[in-house]
Amino acid sequence: MNLTRDEMIRYGTIAAIALAVVAPFLTGNLFLLNLLSLMLIFIIFASAWNLLAYSGQGSLGHAAFFGIGAYASTLIAVNSGISPYISIFLGAAVAAGIGILIGLTCVRLKEWFLAMVTFGFAIIVQTITVSLLTPITGGWDGIASPRLLSPDITGYQLIEYYSILMITIASIVMIWYILKSRIGLAFSAIRENELEARAAGVDPVRYRLLAFALSAYLAGVAGALQIHHIGYITPEIFGVDLSFWPVTYVIFGGVGTLAGPVIGTIILTIIWEGLKMAGFTFSRYIIVGILLILVIIFLPKGLVDLPDKFYKWWTHRKKPEQPQAVLQE
Amino acid sequence: MYDLGILLQIVFWGLYAGCIYILLATGLNLIFGVMKIVNFAHGEFLMIGAYITATVFFLTGFNPYAIILLSMLTLIGIGAIVERLCFRPILGTSKLNEIFLSIGLIYIFTNSAAMIWGDEWQSIKSPYQGIAVPVGSLNIPLDYIIIIVVTTVILCGLYLFLKKTKTGREMRATSQNRKGAMLVGINVERMDILSFGIGCALAAAAGTLWVVSGQVFNPYMGSIPAVKAFAIIILGGLGSIPGAIIGGLLYGIAENGAAYFLGGVWKDAISFIILIIVLIIRPTGLFGESGE
Predict the structure, then answer these.
(1) pLDDT tens, position by position, B1-48
(2) pTM confidence score
(3) Does residue B285 belong to any structural domain of this protein?
(4) Which one-letter DSSP state was computed for residue B83?
(5) How many distinct structural domains can be found in chain B?
(6) Nearest to B214 by CA among B119, B126, B145
(7) Per the CB < 8 Å rule, is B40 touching A113?
(8) In chain B, whose CA is at the least distance from the CA of A287?
(9) Total Cβ atoms within 10 A of residue A126
(10) Residues of B numbered 30-89 whose beta carbons fall under 8 angstroms of chain A's beta carbons: which are they?
(11) How far is A250 from chain B (nearest CA, A)?
(12) How high is the ipTM of this complex?
């Protein structure tokens, strides 16, 4: 193996995309295809959360943007009759707009305060959906949402899967591009040290708002995709569960890395569905909870860090005792 | 328009609801003061306290108010284990880790409870149900009065413990200056585990009071009260116990007022709306000095 790190990443990415393209033919099973589609949607959602975390802001209420994107897209599609393929992006724009609004209250807040406000925000949005907006949202009963493709088309599941795959890849490429650009640099500068970032001419407020808007937009895309995929929406979409999942996925994979959300979502989905097939119900949450805590304590950089850690341990193991250790005493 | 009696009734409901929030918020504040961490899974301890009370009550038929001691003692143990296994290893790492770790704890505790006790809503009947004490023009349920008294007793006990005992003084010293406390020979790790245990015991007391007041509970009920308690300590200032008490009472009253005037669905949302408004005006909380 004479590959450099970059080459390994490049080949790994190509292999992953190729695998995603041929996956429907490997499984050949509608249940698994549906699962794969949902997994891709959650990759977008987790990546969106991760983008916000990259700028040092940890949200506990991302279900709000997920749900706003879903509701907005559904309502736009139902009332104007345009294709869900377009309304997804319009709905997400609504989520981004609201993301900026909530971002305005959050930009000056520290970690815990931010987590609290975002958590509370999801509850407020849910309350408004079932009270003031009941005439258009259907209250707790929810409303039907147009499918991404009409079920009359033959092989519509397959087309839907590839559409979702395209949007997922596009989202990740977009995030990669953002993180690589000056914006990404500004995000990490703010995350590491806000004071120094400001001294270097980075306006923290502007970039934090930008992170909020981008993250909310992508979360909105993910929410709209999921709802158009399922065909029905209820206010449960703003629930705590959906706020916590992206966090869990990203921490599993590795916070602040491009591959983290992808790897975390894939591995956790496999664990999750595997446990379900093995007949676990409540206990799979317990297992995931324990795994999550173990990852936080022992692998703070997530599973993406595992190869590096293993490599270090492997090379270290072969080396003889370092004489420096004696000198230090 | 609205007559005075109803307003007074709302204020009184608020006082009683506030008691549960005060206990939760004081526990969170104590833990924050000593360890400088925030446990979002604090409400799960309330939930477990509630279930312990209900289970013992169903099994033995004791007066549920007496079970408060048992649930507090159990939770001291659980809290100590959680502190030792989960929070101590991440002390001093990124602050976001505490939030993430709490999510793991929430998964573990809610679903363990769902496995043991099932996930339906439950409730028990207090032995004093239906008894009301006439105070002026109001009829106040006896349970509410007992709850307010019990909360006051617990808070006074905590105050005396912190002010008068050696351990309490050591705990306050640790909360003021961790390094300084270490230098004068205080075992700060013992203080961590102790404060976490006491914080959990206060949550357990809140859980018992929640149950005996006849409110319904299920394994997932913990997160909303916990987040409200957290909102209260943000309002009252992190680490300030008087702030937690005032904030808790105001929250209880605001919530019940909103439920009465705007409708029940607004009960949870209103507290966050207040929180967001306060944070827009003062990003460090009403009485907080610096945000950290």
Answers:
(1) 457 777 777 787 788 888 888 999 999 888 888 888 888 889 899 999
(2) 0.86
(3) no
(4) I
(5) 1
(6) B126
(7) no
(8) B108
(9) 23
(10) 38, 40, 86, 89
(11) 10
(12) 0.83
